Amino acid sequence: MLLPHAQTLAQTRSSLAALSDQASTIDASSAYEHVLIELDRIHGDECPSADAEGPTEDRAILLAVATSALEELEQYGIDPLTIELIIAMLDDAYALDGT
After folding, report:
1. What 3-state DSSP class applies to 78?
2. Which residues contact 81 (CB under 8 A, 6 or more apart)?
3. Which residue, 80, 60, 59, is CA-closest to 70?
């Protein structure tokens, strides 16, 4: 995995983890964790650590950052359909979060 890919993946993982941590319910938190698990699965569990910058508290911004970073993964060879499915999972988790 090259550095730009790793940075994008780390940004995505950080945003997903922050969304999970800030979720309003256990079910929503679990749904975000499932998105993170699926992201790790498609990368063969070769996952960089989260970036050092503290993510924002605004869940709408975190959702936008995660979605944008997921879309960016297509340029690193990730199947576009897989990305769309993960984004759909993320949207479902966000809807479950009630925000």
Report:
1. coil
2. none
3. 80
Taking the C-alpha atoms of residue 24 and residue 14, their distance in angstroms, rounded to an integer, is 18
Would you call 1 helix, strand, or coil by DSSP?
coil
Closest CA to 12 of 56, 64, 78, 84: 64
Does the global pTM surpass 0.90?
A: no
Find the helix packing angle between 3-22 and 26-42, rounded to 10°. 170
For the stretch 34-49, pLDDT in tens is 988 888 888 776 665 5
Tokens representing 23?
């979720």
**Phi-psi category of residue 59: left, alpha or beta, with phi > 0 → left and psi -120 to 50 → alpha:** alpha
What confidence tens digit (pLDDT) does each residue in 1-18 have? 667 777 778 788 888 888
* Tokens linked to 29: 């938190």
What is the sign, positive or negative, of the torsion defined by CA atoms of 73, 20, 63, 35?
A: positive
